[in-house]
Fold this sequence. Notes:
The chain is of the alpha/beta class. The chain has two domains: 140 residues, Immunoglobulin-like (Sandwich), CATH 2.60.40; 331 residues, TIM Barrel. Helix content is 28%, strand content 27%. The chain has twelve helices and 22 strands. It has a ten-stranded mixed beta sheet with strand order 19-18-22-16-15-14-1-17-21-20. Helix 5 links the parallel strand 9 and strand 10. The protein is globular. The relative contact order is 0.14.
Amino acid sequence: xxxxxxxxxxxxxxxxxxxxxxxxxxxxxxxxxxxxxxxxxxxxxxxxxxxxxxxxxxxxxxxxxxxxxxxxxxxxxxxxxxxxxxxxxxxxxxxxxxxxxxxxxxxxxxxxxxxxxxxxxxxxxxxxxxxxxxxxxxxxxxxxxxxxxxxxxxxxxxxxxxxxxxxxxxxxxxxxxxxxxxxxxxxxxxxxxxxxxxxxxxxxxxxxxxxxxxxxxxxxxxxxxxxxxxxxxxxxxxxxxxxxxxxxxxxxxxxxxxxxxxxxxxxxxxxxxxxxxxxxxxxxxxxxxxxxxxxxxxxxxxxxxxxxxxxxxxxxxxxxxxxxxxxxxxxxxxxxxxxxxxxxxxxxxxxxxxxxxxxxxxxxxxxxxxxxxxxxxxxxxxxxxxxxxxxxxxxxxxxxxxxxxxxxxxxxxxxxxxxxxxxxxxxxxxxxxxxxxxxxxxxxxxxxxxxxxxxxxxxxxxxxxxxxxxxxxxxxxxxxxxxxx
Length: 485
């Protein structure tokens, strides 16, 4: 059964700017992947088509990158591999958000590792030698790229130190690592930007700021991570059970609380996704597209950056993917085919920067209106968290305007539109698609603009459409004038 939902809007009533915080940064996986040509090609596409400005990845200092080794009891430094990646980023107009991790074995106090590539996560055996590494690294990048360029980068200290798998030590040990690292960076140039605590689940923000204030340490920004599956259900439950146990608006509420806890410091979410499961089938489906659009617009002005994890399924924390669609985190699959989540960011990138007030509330259907030049964009999602069965809805939009539109079109992401996984399944789920099959999948992934019927009378534009479950739709109204009263 289809149920009707009504939204009303006076196109002259703006309610503030729409920041594009989601474009600040996008995540990747392991730094060494940045040496691959296909990784570089996919990132360049994401920068060009989605507007991402920074990229963040793990393990720039791990042994897989060769940053530090020990020969005859002498430390040998080599930043060649990091330079290849950063040279590429600068060449395409992007910047690194530098996660200073993990521990080179030559400096490590222990042998605990994480991920398929065995990144050492123990504290430094000698904090002075760690500080020396950070100074040498920052000095090298300033010499290579110029101080003005490196001042525009951001430096995070470690990754998720509140989780034992990433930091098998105390909170106080992490705070010491931050102190030593921040002082080393600022010793190279006081305008280099450093922040933390880079925690999972919005943790340690208050304690971190108390510590840095007490010890008069620089904090240029606060960064943390969250997923809707954080602290939901139990460790033994699967992703579907965790999402079913969550509550409506959980990411928005966490972001609001964390924003308030930052004491005026800029807040960056440098990792998030629709779930923290690296093999979640929902990552390949329109569900994640709806999560992306709803979460990003609701986070407006709560954060300076909201970095999706990750831009590509070229990803090797566990094992390199064996299937074109396996529920990986990426916006693009290993072949560079766009998932619905990619199309969601493409839609968001095309939005204007002025929000218009919309009247109407519904439990699963949300509606936003955005002005872009002489056009008005109406963005709709039909999504729910907790995850449970929801219905398709007929949506009626009543838009007050002195001006008739000259054209009305709609773009959709749902079960029947931009659903590339279904196209792959219809091909028989080939593990190694042929060139012809890949061309078909690229075509099936496209988000297409179609005309939408409309009526104009009594200074009101009347629009009607059906919004399926876990769907995204964007209606674009074009005017000869700006569409204001």
